[in-house]
Design brief:
This protein has 28 helices and no strands. The chain is mainly α and 521 residues long.
Length: 521
């Protein structure tokens, strides 16, 4: 067959926008038509009235950024608008394809949440910190000259024989990023919720931490920057998933592709709506322990069975979060093999097993709250799967390591007054005494003292410290999980945060000192 002649005929007769709708994705790929249908445009992606501010984030030299931001604040631009512009600049520059870039995107919404917990004069600090990181990385990668995302438009007649969900998955599996983005654009034109639900079917092929957290943080940002930017923000996940298709470790990570459909069918979850059956404290604790101790497939099965029994998704998500929390409380820290600059032997901050697991569990739990019934079930099944996988995937003897706090540290804490305990916790953090900091905060909570002063203490360091790209995000994870965990167990979240904060202390974040000087705080 003369493929080139056939291709010209199709383009003439039905037009590029109708090819896949006419012959289907598989045949279009065989004929070499899918790429023609989806060829990427070089037309710039622009953002209307936000464009000048987005360009400021991309084009300003990092050493001049903070004075420019301070001037914008003084002239009436609020923090939310600055975060919006930074998010769009980040997406346009990196498209979810740069490690530091997408970590910075994931810190943007948490930075604004942190700002709202601070006194008014200090509120710009966490935002300026992350925006400085954002522009620094954009400049390192070439700024506007190296933008990844360009304009993408849905086909004129967006009809897909297999539906947008399956066509998007097929395009990602074929590593056809341009077609995948056009399908996503068609879904987003229908509604942002449709695009998000379509995307999650593909995200759920694997349970790798960034694959999971990236779409949640992009979706979370839409509440700040506007749902009209759904396609731009979710394209980052599409591109991440396309790149992941070429990873060598895919075979070892791809069990969810077969396990999830099997469990959904076996437990008849495709025919159900999420249940409303409440769970007692002891039930949640038992499910948490079962998930933590199981193999990944067993943990997924346990979650699916609980969903089929009608237990409320929030209770199952709570158990998953508590299981992930154990990976911080039990971790013996980085081994000499894993030591890096800023991540010393014994440390648990940054991309540690526990921080990654907690951020992933938080993402699955939150996505389950805003998706359709099928994806609610899928997110929780895979959330359980991932915690169990994380327990074993990077080594360690988590089943036998004991969780913090340990008795001999607790026995050494004699203070009972809230202020005295907070001073001792601060001192432990500044000495990088992870176990002692965790024990003090555990005792503080055990005595019934209020949580806000502890959050204020931890917030100070979430702002000041670098945290190896995770400080803002993990602080926000703990804030959310503490608020949605029952009183019997919620202090485990703050105990873990105390440990991580003590681990990360001593490596101040770039830009924070300059921001303090500019803001005079």
């Amino acid at each position: 067959m003369n493929t080139q002649h056939t291709r010209r005929g199709f383009l003439t007769e039905v037009g590029r926008g109708m090819i896949v709708a006419t012959v289907g994705y598989s045949m279009a790929s065989e004929l070499g038509l899918a790429t023609a249908f989806a060829s990427e445009t070089t037309e710039a992606l622009t953002f209307g009235e936000l464009e000048s501010l987005v360009c400021l984030m991309q084009e300003t030299p990092a050493n001049k950024l903070l004075p420019a931001l301070a001037a914008k604040l003084k002239s009436g631009t609020d923090l939310r608008r600055l975060v919006t512009a930074a998010a769009l600049a980040n997406a346009r520059t990196f498209g979810g394809e740069d490690y530091v870039g997408f970590h910075t995107m994931m810190a943007l919404s948490p930075s604004l949440h942190l700002a709202h917990e601070l006194p008014k004069a200090e509120q710009p600090l966490p935002v300026f910190k992350v925006l400085y990181r954002n522009t620094t990385r954009i400049q390192e990668k070439g700024g506007r000259k190296e933008e990844v995302l360009h304009a993408v438009k849905p086909p004129a007649s967006p009809r897909f024989p297999g539906g947008t969900t399956q066509t998007l998955a097929d395009a990602v599996h074929a590593k056809d990023v341009a077609l995948a983005e056009k399908v996503l654009a068609a879904s987003a034109q229908e509604s942002p919720d449709q695009a998000f639900n379509d995307l999650l079917h593909t995200v759920q092929d694997q349970t790798e931490v960034h694959r999971v957290v990236l779409p949640y943080r992009a979706w979370d940002l839409l509440g700040l920057i506007g749902r009209e930017h759904a396609c731009t923000m979710l394209r980052q996940s599409v591109r991440y998933c396309v790149k992941a298709e070429g990873w060598q470790q895919n075979a070892a990570l791809s069990e969810p592709r077969t396990l999830l459909p099997k469990l959904l069918e076996e437990h008849h979850l495709l025919e159900r709506q999420p249940g409303t059956r409440a769970a007692e404290d002891a039930w949640v604790e038992q499910l948490s322990q079962t998930i933590f101790k199981s193999t990944p497939a067993q943990a997924a099965g346990v979650a699916a069975a609980a969903l089929a029994e009608g237990v409320t998704p929030d209770a199952i998500g709570e158990a998953i979060s508590l299981a992930a929390n154990q990976l911080i409380l039990r971790d013996t820290g980085r081994t000499p093999r894993d030591e890096q600059v800023g991540k010393l032997v014994g440390s648990v901050h940054g991309d540690s097993i526990g921080v990654h697991a907690c951020d992933s569990a938080n993402a699955w739990r939150n996505m389950a709250r805003v998706t359709n019934a099928r994806n609610t079930f899928a997110c929780l099944i895979l959330g359980a799967y991932q915690v169990a996988l994380d327990r074993t995937n990077r080594g360690g003897d988590f089943l036998n390591w004991q969780p913090l706090p340990v008795k001999w540290h607790l026995d050494g804490i004699k203070s009972t007054e809230a202020d005295a305990l907070l001073r001792e916790a601060d001192d432990a953090i500044r000495q990088n005494l992870q176990s002692r900091a965790a024990a003090i905060i555990h005792r503080y909570g055990e005595l019934g003292h209020p949580s806000r002063p502890v959050f204020d203490l931890m917030l100070r360091y979430a702002v000041s410290e670098d945290g190896a790209l995770h400080a803002e995000k993990y602080y926000r994870t703990v804030t959310e999980e503490f608020a949605s965990t029952r009183p019997a167990y919620r202090w485990r979240q703050l105990t873990a945060l105390a440990r991580v904060t003590a681990s990360e202390y001593g490596r101040p974040a770039a830009g924070v000192a300059e921001a303090r000087e500019l803001l005079k705080v």
